[in-house]
Design a protein that fits this description.
disordered C terminus, 3-stranded antiparallel beta sheet, alpha+beta, about 280 residues
Length: about 280
């Protein structure tokens, strides 16, 4: 790890950064593999997924991000997607800003959940950018609990998915965890109001789906290597939240005696400086 430090917003704490040279010189497949930690079984319910049973521990928030904000993914029908792309905000006759919606920083996870943009009413994959401060405000109002969560905001840690390899025509399940953020009511409205930009990633989703459907793993690897320059680069991210929020969401280790201290915390990979 390098000795550089990054300050987010008005936070008083500093986040150690991984050396840029190390990340830049590491093949994407190798870097993704290093994100895998000890197996943690997790129980989740509605909206995200329900794979395994959850055991508390530190998790790593992986996302594509820069100094302006963080990218999230959602799948919609064509009517909602077309309106959002034209107006660069969510709205229109088919969109309900208060209904429960799940946003995912992991491109592989939205591909898994939407069937690469082939499922009914999930045929368009959108990439949405929100400011760091807005995401932090949303996360501060979310709960992260066994088998449930907050009434308006909820965080789930589900088995991560590997964008570079496939298993049974879906992104391969990994040993680490990926964050899913569920929002409704006032929190969903706040999210909608915070959008900075919206992009259409449907064609890329279909391209990945075609490659993942190949039977020979070597052909999948070659296809994904050829597509690598179009894929998002997701790296460890620490939202600018208060320490209490980070601990609650399993993003920071609690001190001994903390009421929500996670047990058996796995190894954590720290963030690095965003590329300019």
């Amino acid at each position: 790890f390098g000795s550089s430090l990054l300050r987010f917003g008005h936070r008083s704490d500093l986040i150690p950064l991984q050396c840029e040279r190390t990340v830049a010189s590491t093949p994407l497949s190798t870097f993704v593999a290093t994100m895998s930690g000890p197996v943690q079984d997790a129980t989740t319910s509605s909206g995200g997924s329900s794979e395994g049973s959850f055991r508390p521990g530190l998790c790593t928030f992986m996302a594509e991000w820069d100094e302006e904000g963080v990218f999230l993914y959602q799948a919609f029908n064509s009517e909602i997607a077309d309106w959002a792309l034209e107006h660069q905000q969510f709205g229109g006759p088919g969109f309900n800003p208060t209904r429960m919606t799940w946003v995912k920083p992991s491109f592989a996870w939205v591909l898994y959940r939407s069937g690469y943009g082939r499922k009914h009413n999930q045929e368009r994959i959108l990439k949405i950018k929100v400011p760091h401060a807005a995401l932090a405000k949303l996360l501060a109002r979310c709960s992260c609990k066994h088998g449930g969560g907050g009434s308006l905001g909820r965080v789930q840690w589900d088995p991560a998915r590997d964008l570079l390899s496939a298993d049974g025509r879906e992104p391969r399940k990994r040993r680490d965890r990926a964050i899913q953020i569920g929002l409704k009511g006032r929190l969903s409205e706040l999210y909608v109001q915070s959008v900075l930009s919206i992009q259409d990633c449907t064609d890329l989703a279909h391209d990945v789906g075609k490659i993942h459907s190949l039977k020979d793993p070597r052909e999948v690897a070659r296809g994904m290597e050829a597509l690598k320059h179009e894929l998002p680069v997701e790296t460890p991210y620490m939202p600018p939240c208060d320490e209490a929020v980070l601990k609650k969401l399993l993003l920071q280790e609690s001190e001994p005696g903390d009421s929500e201290a996670p047990r058996h915390a796995p190894h954590r990979v720290m963030g690095h400086r965003p590329r300019r």
